[in-house]
Design goal:
The protein is mainly alpha-helical and 313 residues long. The protein has one domain: Rhomboid-like (Rhomboid-like fold, Up-down Bundle). It contains 16 helices and 3 strands. Strands 1-2-3 form a 3-stranded antiparallel sheet. Helix 2 packs antiparallel against helix 9. The protein is globular and about 55 Å long.
Length: 313
């Protein structure tokens, strides 16, 4: 009788990939567990709500490529931990879940969120272009950004080195915030989230590793595609595909392409004057993605030379 961990982790061929999945599971279930514990919400409903996100778009879980420099992604891990702690404890999200009083949470959003127009004495001015990168609206917003950061950031951090990676992350996040200022009418509504910086990471990953593959949680890829694959594996004798897997491996250009095309269409519609839900977010995503071209200023010199010569990274 196989254990659950054996079934879930069985599709990973090495320890690095398994460790990556474990971190991904922590990114998902630590916030969900905190929300369930603090608010009394059903964990089943919280997990089901999260899984709905994997119906339309594949949810990246782990990059299956090897890192060239074998560095530990301390900056990526630190960013994930810091963002999680800030949401639940500094922003007052945990207290809001317990007491159903979101005053402290709203106060932090208004003071430290990114805004072009702000009430005098009720903001930190230009500094909010940085503070907003570390803030999130809620746990689903946090999980979505952090799972993307982990899936694509750790290999990019290895390609840049920790400090250059951190600087790139902050710069592309600030640039993405400017997109709201220059492309949308002035508003008092604050902008929050690491989405712009994360889309910059995603774009840079696609530039440097266009042929890479990503293990994803994608429900259409599990049902019905997986049983079909297994059926033909039995018919043709392909042993590698006979085992059931909960994750599906997809080309990164397909995974990222789906997110980019969707956000591009939504951003274009918003700029044309049509109503789009979270229009500011869609524009921030695309500006962050365009800012990813700056990655060439931050990668290691020997890796840049390999890229220019068309060699594998």
């Amino acid at each position: 009788m196989k254990s659950l961990s054996t079934v879930v982790l069985g599709s990973f061929v090495n320890t690095t990939e398994r460790n990556s999945l474990i971190v991904s599971l922590l990114i998902i279930f630590v916030p969900l567990t905190l929300v369930g514990f603090l608010s009394g919400y059903s964990m089943f409903l919280l997990v089901a709500d999260f899984l709905l996100a994997a119906v339309v778009f594949p949810l990246p879980i782990a990059d299956v490529g090897t890192v060239r420099y074998q560095t530990t992604p301390w900056v990526t891990v630190s960013l994930i931990v810091i963002n999680t702690l800030l949401l639940f404890f500094w922003m007052g999200y945990a207290d809001a879940l317990v007491t159903q009083d979101g005053f402290a949470y709203i106060e932090h959003v208004m003071i430290y969120g990114y805004r072009e127009i702000y009430f005098q004495g009720y903001s930190v001015g230009a500094f909010n272009s940085i503070t907003a990168i570390f803030m999130h609206i809620g746990h689903m917003h946090l999980i979505g950004n952090m799972i993307m950061l982990w899936a694509f950031g750790k290999r990019l951090e290895d390609a840049c080195g920790p400090w250059r990676f951190l600087i790139f992350y902050l710069i592309v996040g600030i640039i993405a915030g400017f997109g709201i200022v220059y492309l949308l009418p002035p508003s008092d509504g604050p902008g929050l989230g690491a989405s712009g910086a994360v889309f910059g990471i995603m774009g840079a990953y696609l530039i440097l590793f266009p042929t890479s593959r990503i293990k994803c949680l994608w429900l259409p890829g599990i049902f019905p595609i997986r049983p079909i694959i297994m059926f033909f594996a039995y018919m043709t004798g392909e042993n590698d595909y006979k085992r059931w897997r909960w994750l599906i491996t997809l080309p990164s250009i397909l995974v990222l392409g789906l997110y980019i095309v969707y956000n591009l269409l939504e951003a274009q519609s918003a700029l044309s004057g049509n109503f789009v839900s979270n229009a500011g977010g869609k524009i921030v995503h695309m500006v962050g993605f365009l800012g990813s071209i700056l990655i060439f200023l931050f990668v290691r010199k020997d890796l840049l030379r390999r890229y220019i010569k068309g060699r594998n990274l």
